[in-house]
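Appendix B. Chain record.
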Amino acid sequence: MGINADMGGKCKCITLIGNHVGIPASSCYSLTGVDKNHEYDLKSFAHLTGSIIIGGIGFKNEGDAIYNKAIVTIPYGWPFGNGDTDYHSFYFGKRHPARVEKSFIRKVARLTGNEYDFKPSKEIYILSLPNFGNIGLAICADFYDIERYMVYQGRIQHLFLLAYNQDTESFNHLAESAARLIFCNVVICNTGYHGGSIAFSPRKKSYERVLYSHYGSKLCTVQTVELPVADLIEAQKSESGHPDFKTVPPGYEFYDSGLCSDD
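Structure tokens predicted for this chain:
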């Protein structure tokens, strides 16, 4: 999935269904175990296009510790560069593995005689992009992490989730729940093999809430999605809200970070 802003206070998101996201200023890939060569390809894509790349790289081990991580690659000069530039990368990880993942790790440990164990990533990141909005980052099963919702509420405008998920209907329902509870846009980039990618916004009119939905398996698509930023921030921070959006949930508090300012 990728993201860029226009002069109308919106953010343009390119979803590359099949495991990656880009922000043309940005791009995202879903979670399918990208090896070192493909990890380099993601970085090269950021280098060539001048886009932020957010990509799932699957499970990695450091000794007996097993981590599930994703990579964010940001070209220098973004969003004003036109490609062919150097970049900076950082990783974020999954906090809670799914049961089937924990079971698989234990099975591999028994078969190999190693003491493999999943190590949770306790850090919760916010990618702050002035005029584009703050982006929360999560991997697959962390979509169920209620504590993450509490941290992100009032602090982000977009939640990006990279997933390898077969229960697409449940995640679609969670997308609406998260959009209302955190009060932000929610974008799921799921593997194209199972479908289930969606972009959801907490708009007042029900037919305007689903900005994009990829329904059906074994479909590879590329789609540009426009995410609201300036109007959403007004709905988040103003006591009167915004006529195009639902009201914030009870107890909501907006933490002003100077986004979309005129300075």
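Further analysis of this model is presented in Appendix C.
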